Amino acid sequence: MKDKIAEKFLMVVAFSAILTLALISFFIFQQGLPLIFKAGLHNIFSTHWAPTRGHFGILSMIVGSIMVTAGALIIGVSFGLACTIFLSEFSSGTIQKTLKPIIELLAGIPSVVYGFMGIVILVPFVRTHFGGPGFSVLTASIILGIMILPTIVSISYDSLRAVPKTYREGSFALGATKWQTVVMLLIPAARSGIIAGIILGMGRAIGETMAVIMIAGNALKIPHSILDSVRTLTSTIALELGYATGDHRAALFACGSFLFIIIVILNIIAIRFKGKE
Amino acid sequence: MLLTFTMLTCTQKKAGSGIIIAGSTSVQPFIEQVADNYMREHPGIAIIVQGGGSTAGIQATFNRICNIGTSSRHLIGDEKRLKQILIAMDGVAVIVHPSNPVDNLTVEQIRGIFTGKIRNWKDVGGKDEIIIPVTREEGSGTRGSFEELIMEGEEISDRCLVQDSNGSVREIIATTPNGIGYISAGLVDEREKAIAIDGIKPTPENLISHHYKFCRPFLLLLLEEPKGEVKKFIDYVLSPKGQKILAGNGLIPAVPFNNER
Questions:
Q1: Residues 26-65 of B with CB under 8 A from A
Q2: Rounded to a whole number, what is the distance in Å from the CA of B210 to chain A's nearest CA?
Q3: What is the pLDDT of residues B80-125, one digit of tens each?
Q4: What is the tally of structural domains in chain A?
Q5: Element counts in chain A: helices (H) and strands (E)
């Protein structure tokens, strides 16, 4: 009897999580889609964003989100992979035991703190050494790159570790060096896990809001260089929702709809790669 | 909008004798000070001051989510159905970094900078450096006033940086040598420099004597005639005491008062 009650209770709780997701997606599209149809795709995919005057162009924000995410991936993946390979293959047990928790700790730092560090340290640094306003694609990419490190490191570390020991031993027995083993054997073997980690990191980068608002400058123009300011989809929603009414508000939900679609696609890809393992 | 507000107010359910004030982030710091003083003099009354923005404050007043709404811009169209009480006027100050040699700009120059036609400080008498203009987000009351007072119908360029509060605009200008932005004149401090527009600086004297023309109203909004605690508080804001607090923070009081008291 008690078993039955517990089972039913757990089922209800489990379904409530799914229900939340269903409600969120329903709400976003219900609010955003009417405007997309009303304004027309050519209006939505323009670069002119003046929602209080009937211009709902979100192209520059989509481009902004993609640029910042790509920048974050370049930094996050190169540092993340180097770190993972070092941790998993080239370091002793004690180094692993200290370094890995520290990297995972990075995930626990609130994004507003990253943003604050960005404003205080990185923005003036970029401004004085590279030029431009300092609030730029480059600054946002560096901060986001650091923010996605723990995701990339912990998932790709697990998949590198999951490669059977016999593979390594076989490779050494054939006379391969450690580096050759890593590049030619381990990385290809752990490929799907590494890619899943990268895609999950990408999801975090594209969805990040607070830190990006603080350091990207939020100018609406499509950036011409990595030193120009940039506006992402998420920052637009967070910046303007407090004031928005009517069509302006609907336009922000339209931003949300596009973001939702992008993130769902990323997650489907990630799940596919994970499933292959 | 409704949902956002319900979520906002759920956490702060209406207390027995409480007043909820919501709206303009420009009015917020000033009304908070008046409310603090009022609460000190009238223990037992809780006044909660929330931000959200002028447009949000107007909506909240219509939806009875707050007792008093605040706005830092004139009401338009249907919004005029609300009862408006002018509590003070506020100057909109154009600010630059203290190290910037430019002290004075004409309205045309400022408009040129924000429309993107003027891009270098040397064109307006400064150093040979790129201008970094900072504006407020679409829908902000301060931005609305700036567009009305300075831009005169021209659109603010999309190359401007965008920030979502007076505080963050001020923070950027204070740390960016080539920046220029606009905030409430009452909030300018020593970390940035308010420049003169057409030769007139937004000093308290110039604001009160109406020499500085770039002013906007700070409004309290009500759905119906005030009564009870709400009326008492509004009377306090308009009393010499309340007005003195506002004037002491750099606003132009709406009700002339005797400085001696």
A1: 51-56, 59
A2: 30
A3: 899 999 999 888 999 999 999 999 999 999 999 999 999 999 999 8
A4: 1
A5: 14, 2
Q: Do domains B2-89+216-258 and B91-208 have the same CATH topology?
A: yes
Chain-chain contact of A243 with B162 (C-beta, under 8 angstroms)? no
pTM equals 0.81
Q: Å from B112 to nearest chain A CA?
A: 17
Range of the domain at A33: 2-275
The number of beta carbons lying within 10 Å of the beta carbon of residue B136 is: 29
CATH number of the structural domain spanning residue A126: 1.10.3720.10
d(Cα A70, Cα B21) in Å, to the nearest integer? Answer: 43
Q: List the single residue in B1, B137, B176 with the smallest CB-CB distance to A249.
A: B1
CB under 8 Å to A223, separation ≥6 — which residues? A63, A64, A67, A136, A137, A229, A230
Q: A238 with A209: CB under 8 angstroms? A: yes
How distant is the Cα of A150 from the closest Cα of chain B, in angstroms? 29
Is the CB of A243 less than 8 angstroms away from the CB of B53? yes
- Write down the CATH superfamily of domain B91-208: Periplasmic binding protein-like II (3.40.190.10)
Q: Return the residue in A60, A123, A243 with the most chain B beta carbons within 10 A, the one to mutate for interface testing.
A: A243
Q: Is the pLDDT confidence value at A91 over 70?
A: yes
Q: Are strands B83-96 and B193-194 parallel, antiparallel or unpaired?
A: antiparallel
Topology at the third CATH level for domain B2-89+216-258:
D-Maltodextrin-Binding Protein; domain 2 (3.40.190)
- Tell me the ipTM for this assembly: 0.80
Residues B175, A218: C-beta atoms closer than 8 Å = no
